[in-house]
Design brief:
This protein is mostly helical. It folds into two domains: about 80 residues, no CATH class; about 40 residues. Helices cover about 80% and strands about 0% of the residues. The chain is built from six helices and no strands. Helix 1 runs antiparallel to helix 2.
């Protein structure tokens, strides 16, 4: 793959991710957009093998999220995402595990904030 083709592929994927994120609830959209933006910046100068893996994983993410965001799927289930395969953790670096934990903390903090807000509204 030439450099121009690679750049075009990365840009298309980047734009696709942000388009798919539009269907997410507002708080998840902001978190997803920020995370994707940071990850793409972080991998801007990675080696070709890492770039291949990076693009494959983000492509899978975009496809899975797009499937979950279809109106018919949303009517069936009100949840977004899926659990990570525990075996994948064995292949992650310490930095990646810390990053995953930080993302988990941010997501669960927002969920608990929403629950608190919902309970407060119900009491009024």
């Amino acid at each position: 793959m030439s450099a121009a083709e690679h750049i075009t592929r990365v840009r298309r994927l980047y734009k696709l991710i942000f388009r798919v994120h539009r269907a997410l609830p507002a708080e998840l959209r902001v978190m997803g957009d920020n995370y994707a933006r940071e990850e793409f910046k972080r991998h801007k100068k990675c080696n070709p093998e890492e770039a291949r893996i990076f693009l494959n994983e983000w492509t899978d993410y975009a496809i899975n999220l797009a499937k979950q965001m279809k109106p018919l799927q949303q009517a069936k289930r009100k949840e977004v995402g899926k659990y990570i395969d525990p075996q994948l953790l064995d292949h992650m670096t310490d930095d990646q595990i810390v990053q995953l934990y930080e993302l988990h903390k941010a997501a669960t903090l927002e969920d608990s904030d929403d629950t608190i807000k919902d309970q407060t509204i119900e009491k009024k």
